[in-house]
Amino acid sequence: MTTNSTATRHIKLNNGVAMPALGLGVFLASPEQTADAVACAIAEGYRLIDTAVAYNNERQVGEGIRRSGIKRDEIFITTKLWVANYGHDSARRAFDASLRRLGLDYLDLYLLHWPVPTDFAATIASYQVAEKLLAEGRARAIGVSNFQPQHLENLIAQTDTVPAVNQVELNPYFTGRAVREANQRHGIVTQSWSPIGGTYLRNKNAVTSGADSPLTHPLITGLARKYGKTPAQVVIRWHLEHGFSAIPKSVRPERIAENFNVFDFTLAPEEIAAIDALDTGVRAGGNPETFDRNSYRITIDE
Ligand SMILES: NC(=O)c1ccc[n+]([C@@H]2O[C@H](COP(=O)([O-])OP(=O)(O)OC[C@H]3O[C@@H](n4cnc5c(N)ncnc54)[C@H](OP(=O)(O)O)[C@@H]3O)[C@@H](O)[C@H]2O)c1
Predict the structure, then answer these.
(1) How far apart are CA 83 and CA 86, in angstroms?
(2) How many angstroms does the Cα of residue 136 sit away from the middle of ligand 1?
(3) Is 55 assigned a catalytic role?
(4) Among the four given CATH numbers 3.40.50.620, 3.20.20.100, 1.20.59.10, 3.30.2380.10, the one describing domain 10-276
(5) Which of 134, 193, 223, 250 is 20 to 30 A removed from 201 (C-alpha atoms)?
Protein backbone atom coordinates (compact mmCIF):
# COMPACT_ATOMS: atom_id res chain seq x y z
CA MET A 1 0.00 0.00 0.00
CA THR A 2 1.11 3.56 -0.52
CA THR A 3 1.06 5.74 2.56
CA ASN A 4 0.09 9.31 3.08
CA SER A 5 2.10 10.58 6.00
CA THR A 6 0.51 14.02 5.70
CA ALA A 7 -2.97 12.66 6.47
CA THR A 8 -5.27 15.64 6.19
CA ARG A 9 -8.72 16.46 7.41
CA HIS A 10 -10.08 16.76 3.87
CA ILE A 11 -9.82 14.65 0.73
CA LYS A 12 -10.35 16.20 -2.68
CA LEU A 13 -12.80 14.24 -4.84
CA ASN A 14 -12.34 13.80 -8.59
CA ASN A 15 -14.76 16.65 -9.30
CA GLY A 16 -12.95 19.09 -7.00
CA VAL A 17 -15.35 18.83 -4.05
CA ALA A 18 -13.60 18.63 -0.65
CA MET A 19 -14.85 15.81 1.56
CA PRO A 20 -13.95 15.52 5.25
CA ALA A 21 -11.71 12.47 5.63
CA LEU A 22 -13.25 11.30 8.90
CA GLY A 23 -16.96 11.04 9.56
CA LEU A 24 -19.61 9.41 11.72
CA GLY A 25 -21.39 6.28 10.49
CA VAL A 26 -24.89 5.53 11.74
CA PHE A 27 -25.59 1.95 10.62
CA LEU A 28 -27.35 0.20 13.53
CA ALA A 29 -27.81 3.49 15.36
CA SER A 30 -31.46 3.18 16.33
CA PRO A 31 -33.85 6.03 15.51
CA GLU A 32 -33.85 6.85 19.25
CA GLN A 33 -30.04 7.10 19.37
CA THR A 34 -29.29 8.74 16.05
CA ALA A 35 -30.19 12.42 16.51
CA ASP A 36 -28.18 12.62 19.76
CA ALA A 37 -25.19 10.84 18.17
CA VAL A 38 -25.20 13.18 15.16
CA ALA A 39 -25.56 16.33 17.27
CA CYS A 40 -22.80 15.09 19.60
CA ALA A 41 -20.49 14.31 16.67
CA ILE A 42 -20.96 17.75 15.13
CA ALA A 43 -20.24 19.38 18.50
CA GLU A 44 -17.01 17.32 18.65
CA GLY A 45 -15.92 18.60 15.23
CA TYR A 46 -17.19 15.93 12.81
CA ARG A 47 -18.34 17.42 9.51
CA LEU A 48 -19.24 14.20 7.62
CA ILE A 49 -22.23 12.01 8.44
CA ASP A 50 -22.80 8.72 6.59
CA THR A 51 -26.31 7.30 6.50
CA ALA A 52 -28.42 5.24 4.06
CA VAL A 53 -32.06 4.59 3.33
CA ALA A 54 -31.45 1.06 4.60
CA TYR A 55 -30.39 2.32 8.05
CA ASN A 56 -33.88 3.69 8.59
CA ASN A 57 -32.61 6.78 10.42
CA GLU A 58 -32.36 9.52 7.78
CA ARG A 59 -35.08 11.50 9.53
CA GLN A 60 -33.12 11.43 12.81
CA VAL A 61 -29.87 12.35 11.02
CA GLY A 62 -31.68 15.46 9.75
CA GLU A 63 -32.94 16.20 13.26
CA GLY A 64 -29.41 15.91 14.70
CA ILE A 65 -28.02 18.27 12.05
CA ARG A 66 -30.70 20.88 12.74
CA ARG A 67 -30.23 20.53 16.48
CA SER A 68 -26.48 21.13 16.12
CA GLY A 69 -27.07 24.58 14.65
CA ILE A 70 -24.40 23.96 12.02
CA LYS A 71 -24.78 25.82 8.72
CA ARG A 72 -25.78 23.52 5.87
CA ASP A 73 -22.73 24.32 3.77
CA GLU A 74 -20.39 23.42 6.64
CA ILE A 75 -21.48 19.82 6.81
CA PHE A 76 -21.11 16.94 4.35
CA ILE A 77 -24.00 14.46 4.21
CA THR A 78 -23.92 11.10 2.46
CA THR A 79 -26.84 8.79 1.90
CA LYS A 80 -27.29 5.70 -0.25
CA LEU A 81 -29.85 4.37 -2.66
CA TRP A 82 -31.15 0.98 -1.53
CA VAL A 83 -31.16 -1.89 -4.05
CA ALA A 84 -34.93 -2.39 -3.80
CA ASN A 85 -35.25 1.07 -5.36
CA TYR A 86 -32.91 0.46 -8.30
CA GLY A 87 -34.39 1.43 -11.67
CA HIS A 88 -34.95 4.73 -13.44
CA ASP A 89 -38.20 6.03 -11.93
CA SER A 90 -37.89 4.30 -8.56
CA ALA A 91 -34.36 5.65 -8.02
CA ARG A 92 -35.49 9.22 -8.59
CA ARG A 93 -38.44 8.79 -6.24
CA ALA A 94 -36.15 7.25 -3.62
CA PHE A 95 -33.74 10.21 -3.86
CA ASP A 96 -36.60 12.68 -3.33
CA ALA A 97 -37.79 10.64 -0.33
CA SER A 98 -34.29 10.65 1.20
CA LEU A 99 -34.06 14.43 0.90
CA ARG A 100 -37.52 14.81 2.41
CA ARG A 101 -36.65 12.56 5.37
CA LEU A 102 -33.33 14.32 5.91
CA GLY A 103 -34.98 17.75 5.56
CA LEU A 104 -32.33 18.83 3.03
CA ASP A 105 -32.54 20.27 -0.45
CA TYR A 106 -29.29 18.72 -1.72
CA LEU A 107 -26.90 15.95 -0.76
CA ASP A 108 -23.13 16.14 -0.66
CA LEU A 109 -22.61 12.53 -1.74
CA TYR A 110 -25.10 10.05 -3.15
CA LEU A 111 -24.01 6.40 -3.36
CA LEU A 112 -25.43 3.25 -4.90
CA HIS A 113 -25.39 0.99 -1.84
CA TRP A 114 -24.43 -2.31 -3.54
CA PRO A 115 -23.81 -3.57 -7.04
CA VAL A 116 -26.52 -6.01 -8.13
CA PRO A 117 -24.58 -8.34 -10.43
CA THR A 118 -27.73 -10.33 -11.29
CA ASP A 119 -29.38 -7.15 -12.62
CA PHE A 120 -26.55 -4.88 -13.57
CA ALA A 121 -28.81 -3.06 -16.05
CA ALA A 122 -30.82 -1.74 -13.09
CA THR A 123 -27.58 -0.77 -11.36
CA ILE A 124 -26.58 1.23 -14.45
CA ALA A 125 -30.03 2.83 -14.79
CA SER A 126 -29.82 3.94 -11.15
CA TYR A 127 -26.36 5.39 -11.59
CA GLN A 128 -27.60 7.31 -14.62
CA VAL A 129 -30.27 8.85 -12.38
CA ALA A 130 -27.48 9.82 -9.97
CA GLU A 131 -25.64 11.43 -12.89
CA LYS A 132 -28.71 13.55 -13.66
CA LEU A 133 -29.02 14.55 -9.99
CA LEU A 134 -25.37 15.61 -10.11
CA ALA A 135 -25.98 17.69 -13.25
CA GLU A 136 -29.02 19.30 -11.59
CA GLY A 137 -26.94 20.25 -8.52
CA ARG A 138 -29.06 18.10 -6.21
CA ALA A 139 -26.00 16.00 -5.33
CA ARG A 140 -22.54 17.58 -5.16
CA ALA A 141 -20.85 14.24 -5.83
CA ILE A 142 -21.95 10.70 -6.68
CA GLY A 143 -20.39 7.32 -6.19
CA VAL A 144 -20.83 3.68 -5.32
CA SER A 145 -20.40 1.28 -2.46
CA ASN A 146 -19.19 -2.32 -2.33
CA PHE A 147 -18.19 -2.27 -6.01
CA GLN A 148 -15.46 -4.76 -6.92
CA PRO A 149 -12.99 -3.99 -9.73
CA GLN A 150 -15.07 -5.63 -12.48
CA HIS A 151 -18.20 -3.76 -11.31
CA LEU A 152 -16.27 -0.49 -11.56
CA GLU A 153 -15.00 -1.37 -15.04
CA ASN A 154 -18.53 -2.23 -16.24
CA LEU A 155 -20.03 0.91 -14.73
CA ILE A 156 -17.37 3.22 -16.08
CA ALA A 157 -17.68 1.69 -19.57
CA GLN A 158 -21.42 2.34 -19.65
CA THR A 159 -21.76 5.77 -18.00
CA ASP A 160 -20.22 9.25 -18.26
CA THR A 161 -19.15 10.00 -14.68
CA VAL A 162 -16.37 8.16 -12.86
CA PRO A 163 -17.61 7.61 -9.28
CA ALA A 164 -16.07 10.03 -6.80
CA VAL A 165 -16.08 7.50 -3.96
CA ASN A 166 -16.25 3.72 -3.54
CA GLN A 167 -17.23 2.89 0.04
CA VAL A 168 -16.08 -0.63 0.88
CA GLU A 169 -15.52 -2.97 3.83
CA LEU A 170 -11.97 -2.16 4.91
CA ASN A 171 -10.15 -2.56 8.20
CA PRO A 172 -6.90 -4.21 9.34
CA TYR A 173 -8.45 -7.68 9.03
CA PHE A 174 -9.75 -7.06 5.50
CA THR A 175 -7.73 -4.56 3.54
CA GLY A 176 -9.29 -5.20 0.10
CA ARG A 177 -6.15 -4.67 -1.91
CA ALA A 178 -7.60 -5.32 -5.39
CA VAL A 179 -10.44 -2.90 -4.92
CA ARG A 180 -8.20 -0.20 -3.46
CA GLU A 181 -5.88 -0.50 -6.42
CA ALA A 182 -8.81 -0.30 -8.85
CA ASN A 183 -10.11 2.80 -7.05
CA GLN A 184 -6.71 4.41 -7.25
CA ARG A 185 -6.35 3.62 -10.96
CA HIS A 186 -9.64 5.38 -11.67
CA GLY A 187 -9.08 8.33 -9.31
CA ILE A 188 -11.84 7.14 -6.96
CA VAL A 189 -11.53 7.83 -3.23
CA THR A 190 -11.61 4.71 -1.06
CA GLN A 191 -13.91 5.13 1.92
CA SER A 192 -13.68 2.44 4.61
CA TRP A 193 -16.80 0.99 6.15
CA SER A 194 -16.48 -0.95 9.41
CA PRO A 195 -13.15 0.85 9.72
CA ILE A 196 -12.46 -0.37 13.26
CA GLY A 197 -13.78 -3.86 12.53
CA GLY A 198 -17.32 -3.60 13.87
CA THR A 199 -18.48 -6.08 11.26
CA TYR A 200 -16.39 -8.85 12.91
CA LEU A 201 -18.30 -8.27 16.15
CA ARG A 202 -21.52 -9.04 14.24
CA ASN A 203 -20.10 -12.04 12.37
CA LYS A 204 -17.70 -13.86 14.66
CA ASN A 205 -17.46 -16.79 12.19
CA ALA A 206 -15.40 -14.56 9.91
CA VAL A 207 -12.65 -14.06 12.52
CA THR A 208 -9.59 -16.07 11.49
CA SER A 209 -7.06 -14.06 13.50
CA GLY A 210 -5.98 -14.91 17.04
CA ALA A 211 -7.79 -11.81 18.34
CA ASP A 212 -11.56 -11.35 17.99
CA SER A 213 -11.29 -7.83 16.67
CA PRO A 214 -8.57 -5.53 15.36
CA LEU A 215 -9.13 -3.50 18.55
CA THR A 216 -7.92 -6.37 20.76
CA HIS A 217 -5.08 -7.50 18.52
CA PRO A 218 -1.73 -7.28 20.40
CA LEU A 219 -0.08 -5.29 17.61
CA ILE A 220 -2.78 -2.61 17.83
CA THR A 221 -2.96 -2.56 21.63
CA GLY A 222 0.85 -2.31 21.73
CA LEU A 223 0.86 0.69 19.39
CA ALA A 224 -1.92 2.25 21.44
CA ARG A 225 0.25 1.98 24.57
CA LYS A 226 3.26 3.36 22.72
CA TYR A 227 1.41 6.47 21.55
CA GLY A 228 -0.82 6.97 24.59
CA LYS A 229 -3.85 6.51 22.33
CA THR A 230 -6.64 3.91 22.22
CA PRO A 231 -6.77 0.93 19.82
CA ALA A 232 -9.61 2.59 17.88
CA GLN A 233 -7.55 5.75 17.49
CA VAL A 234 -4.57 3.76 16.15
CA VAL A 235 -6.76 1.97 13.60
CA ILE A 236 -8.51 5.17 12.48
CA ARG A 237 -5.13 6.86 12.12
CA TRP A 238 -3.98 3.93 9.93
CA HIS A 239 -6.86 4.66 7.52
CA LEU A 240 -6.01 8.35 7.37
CA GLU A 241 -2.29 7.65 6.82
CA HIS A 242 -3.29 5.59 3.78
CA GLY A 243 -5.42 8.44 2.43
CA PHE A 244 -8.69 6.55 2.99
CA SER A 245 -11.79 8.23 4.29
CA ALA A 246 -13.20 6.44 7.37
CA ILE A 247 -16.64 6.54 8.97
CA PRO A 248 -16.51 4.80 12.38
CA LYS A 249 -19.87 4.35 14.05
CA SER A 250 -20.63 4.96 17.70
CA VAL A 251 -23.65 6.13 19.61
CA ARG A 252 -21.67 6.73 22.81
CA PRO A 253 -20.52 10.33 23.38
CA GLU A 254 -17.16 9.29 24.85
CA ARG A 255 -16.37 7.04 21.87
CA ILE A 256 -17.62 9.60 19.35
CA ALA A 257 -15.10 12.05 20.87
CA GLU A 258 -12.37 9.37 21.08
CA ASN A 259 -12.72 8.37 17.44
CA PHE A 260 -12.23 11.97 16.27
CA ASN A 261 -9.18 12.62 18.46
CA VAL A 262 -6.68 11.25 15.93
CA PHE A 263 -5.04 14.32 14.48
CA ASP A 264 -2.25 14.72 17.06
CA PHE A 265 -0.06 11.70 16.25
CA THR A 266 1.30 9.77 13.30
CA LEU A 267 2.27 6.14 12.71
CA ALA A 268 5.70 5.22 11.37
CA PRO A 269 5.81 3.59 7.89
CA GLU A 270 6.89 0.25 9.38
CA GLU A 271 3.97 0.38 11.84
CA ILE A 272 1.56 1.04 8.98
CA ALA A 273 3.05 -1.91 7.09
CA ALA A 274 2.73 -4.13 10.18
CA ILE A 275 -0.98 -3.24 10.46
CA ASP A 276 -1.39 -3.94 6.71
CA ALA A 277 -0.01 -7.43 7.37
CA LEU A 278 -2.92 -8.24 9.74
CA ASP A 279 -5.08 -8.75 6.63
CA THR A 280 -6.81 -12.14 6.83
CA GLY A 281 -8.45 -11.86 3.41
CA VAL A 282 -11.78 -12.84 4.99
CA ARG A 283 -14.59 -10.33 4.77
CA ALA A 284 -17.25 -10.32 7.48
CA GLY A 285 -19.88 -8.36 5.57
CA GLY A 286 -21.99 -9.19 2.52
CA ASN A 287 -20.35 -10.57 -0.62
CA PRO A 288 -20.65 -8.03 -3.46
CA GLU A 289 -20.16 -10.79 -6.06
CA THR A 290 -23.39 -12.50 -5.11
CA PHE A 291 -25.42 -9.63 -3.68
CA ASP A 292 -28.95 -9.38 -5.01
CA ARG A 293 -32.19 -7.68 -4.12
CA ASN A 294 -33.12 -10.44 -1.67
CA SER A 295 -29.83 -10.43 0.24
CA TYR A 296 -31.21 -8.23 3.01
CA ARG A 297 -34.85 -7.58 3.76
CA ILE A 298 -35.31 -4.15 5.23
CA THR A 299 -38.26 -2.02 6.21
CA ILE A 300 -38.15 1.63 5.36
CA ASP A 301 -40.31 4.07 7.35
CA GLU A 302 -41.51 6.51 4.74
N1 LIG B 1 -21.80 0.70 2.52
C2 LIG B 1 -22.05 -0.37 3.25
O3 LIG B 1 -22.49 -1.42 2.75
C4 LIG B 1 -21.82 -0.30 4.73
C5 LIG B 1 -21.89 -1.46 5.50
C6 LIG B 1 -21.66 -1.35 6.88
C7 LIG B 1 -21.37 -0.12 7.43
N8 LIG B 1 -21.33 1.02 6.64
C9 LIG B 1 -21.05 2.36 7.20
O10 LIG B 1 -19.84 2.32 7.95
C11 LIG B 1 -20.08 2.74 9.30
C12 LIG B 1 -19.16 2.06 10.27
O13 LIG B 1 -19.22 0.64 10.12
P14 LIG B 1 -19.72 -0.35 11.28
O15 LIG B 1 -20.73 0.36 12.07
O16 LIG B 1 -20.07 -1.61 10.62
O17 LIG B 1 -18.40 -0.67 12.11
P18 LIG B 1 -17.27 0.13 12.92
O19 LIG B 1 -17.47 1.59 12.81
O20 LIG B 1 -15.98 -0.45 12.51
O21 LIG B 1 -17.55 -0.37 14.40
C22 LIG B 1 -18.68 0.02 15.11
C23 LIG B 1 -18.74 -0.81 16.39
O24 LIG B 1 -17.64 -0.51 17.23
C25 LIG B 1 -18.10 0.07 18.45
N26 LIG B 1 -17.17 1.20 18.73
C27 LIG B 1 -17.20 2.44 18.21
N28 LIG B 1 -16.17 3.18 18.65
C29 LIG B 1 -15.47 2.39 19.50
C30 LIG B 1 -14.30 2.60 20.27
N31 LIG B 1 -13.67 3.76 20.25
N32 LIG B 1 -13.85 1.56 21.02
C33 LIG B 1 -14.50 0.35 21.02
N34 LIG B 1 -15.62 0.11 20.30
C35 LIG B 1 -16.10 1.11 19.54
C36 LIG B 1 -19.54 0.50 18.21
O37 LIG B 1 -20.34 0.39 19.36
P38 LIG B 1 -21.08 1.67 20.06
O39 LIG B 1 -21.98 2.33 19.05
O40 LIG B 1 -21.83 1.03 21.17
O41 LIG B 1 -19.98 2.58 20.52
C42 LIG B 1 -19.98 -0.55 17.18
O43 LIG B 1 -20.33 -1.76 17.83
C44 LIG B 1 -21.57 2.39 9.47
O45 LIG B 1 -22.15 3.03 10.59
C46 LIG B 1 -22.14 2.84 8.16
O47 LIG B 1 -22.27 4.25 8.12
C48 LIG B 1 -21.55 0.92 5.31
Answers:
(1) 5
(2) 33
(3) yes
(4) 3.20.20.100
(5) 223
